[in-house]
């Protein structure tokens, strides 16, 4: 089945963009501080204050341009969808991490592609033709205005080397003006605060900020996970309960986690026992290290499909399984899988070479064994009920992930007519034959095949290192549950709220943040995960540096143990998830919080 077939969509898929969270340097902290300075400078240049939200697509475009980025329409579509109402400053900072600023080299390379004779000049007619007819088109009036400003001598030629330098210099000056605007505003605010203070306090040094606490607010040593007795206890008569089995996976999309979700329906009140664990597609090559964590949050699903309050989560651990035991009322619920990111992280390594996928075989293109093995793994990831075949629903979820297109009646009819089925479902052989036909139709061009592989978590060397497969087993004692698999998607605010609620409900320690008004840190130590949630009850937003750098035998869900985040007003945010690097050893969590002013 090919992209060119009118009856079906291609197996090929969109490429995933990944943010590079790594980087070398002597001072990660200074880089982090500089990054937030750049974010703030760009933001206030357009919106005056970081407490204000971005409320339109054009505002987002303006702020990104102010930061030195050059967002395409496709980039803006990614962050400002039809459902987007606003973006907070914190969300803007996340976007800034993913989108690289435009460099002089980027601009020069673009101009060189249309400089046919390589003399460093482009005629106005050539530039106008490119800008009005290719890519994201400009109007003729916009192009003429731009060229007129850049053509100093009026010879109808553009020295693009000088033009690029002028553009970058102007952008730099704009960013500097924004920074000066922030500095001036902060000085004014500081003077206002000093005037409002009692006379006895005016003599005290109020700078520099932030003021770090002398002692860690959180200091807790936990025993080796491998030696902790499991707290989860299966119901005694579990074998007589109704069981439903589902598979799924977590993947990275633009540096953010997405996963399968599930709608769970029970027809009557029942007890629920649910377990989830990572799934190794190749047990024979398993490593000795600890597996990534995987949890499930159970929330109510309203009649209109929106999600409600948290009901329960897998807070108990038994070996590699995370478990929950809960009494449910009749109704519909949503299962939201989640991994903290302490162990399952975006790819940092760069494969040395790119695997060959096909080779010419007469008039056809044969799929090579490494690619065939990767397709076999994809089949396992897509076979969500584990019955060895792909239903139309499962194949549709796969197509949505890899091509963004659903499987309509015509497309499924093509599958039924051309490939092996069993009880109306696509067999493993049929899936392989379908991909073989795709390879032949592409006539040696493997770009679309690579897009499919990348979207399912494969690297260029065909190592599956950006996918976390898992298995969910649901047991109910009073009725048979119905579970509907949903497309891979982000848990979004519903999952964030569920995680925060789970910690705030069960937290063992509540620590007041002295430098912030009405803000608290909630700490929950689970069997293998330590989570800190910051709750801001005030009407003001603030930035908080959470330095866990003195922790031992710990890995964080954040890019670094020393992390700064923005806490919106009247909201709760996960500060850190922490897990032991070595489960056979003690692990100590130490965290010092500092409000950034």
Topology:
Layout: H1 28-47, H2 57-66, H3 73-79, H4 89-98, H5 104-112, E1 121-123, H6 124-133, H7 140-150, E2 157-159, H8 160-196, H9 199-202, E3 218-222, E4 242-253, E5 256-266, E6 270-278, E7 295-301, E8 307-313, E9 316-318, E10 321-328, E11 331-338, E12 358-361, E13 364-367, H10 369-382, H11 392-402, H12 409-418, E14 421-422, E15 425-426, H13 428-442, H14 447-455, E16 467-476, E17 482-489, H15 492-506, E18 509-512, E19 519-525, E20 530-536, E21 542-547, E22 554-556, E23 562-567, E24 571-580, E25 587-596
Folded structure, characterized:
The protein is an alpha+beta fold and 597 residues long. Among the domains are: 218-228 and 506-596, Immunoglobulin-like; 238-348 and 467-496, Jelly Rolls (Sandwich); 358-455, EF-hand (Recoverin, domain 1). Helices cover 32% and strands 27% of the residues. The protein is built from 15 helices and 25 strands. It has helices at residues 28-47, 57-66, 73-79, 89-98, 104-112, 124-133, 140-150, 160-196, 199-202, 369-382, 392-402, 409-418, 428-442, 447-455, 492-506; strands at residues 121-123, 157-159, 218-222, 242-253, 256-266, 270-278, 295-301, 307-313, 316-318, 321-328, 331-338, 358-361, 364-367, 421-422, 425-426, 467-476, 482-489, 509-512, 519-525, 530-536, 542-547, 554-556, 562-567, 571-580, 587-596. The strands form six sheets. Strands 4, 5, 6, 7, 8, 9, 10, 11, 16 and 17 form a ten-stranded antiparallel beta sheet that branches. Strands 18-19-20-24-22 form a five-stranded antiparallel beta sheet, with helices on one face. Strands 3-25-21-23 form a four-stranded antiparallel beta sheet, with no helix packed on it. Helix 1 crosses helix 2 (57-66), helix 5 runs antiparallel to helix 8 and helix 6 (124-133) runs antiparallel to helix 7. The longest helix is centred in the first third of the chain and has 37 residues, at 160-196. The radius of gyration is 27 Å and the shape is globular. Keywords: Calcium, Membrane, Metal-binding, Repeat. Pfam families: EF-hand_5, EF-hand_7.
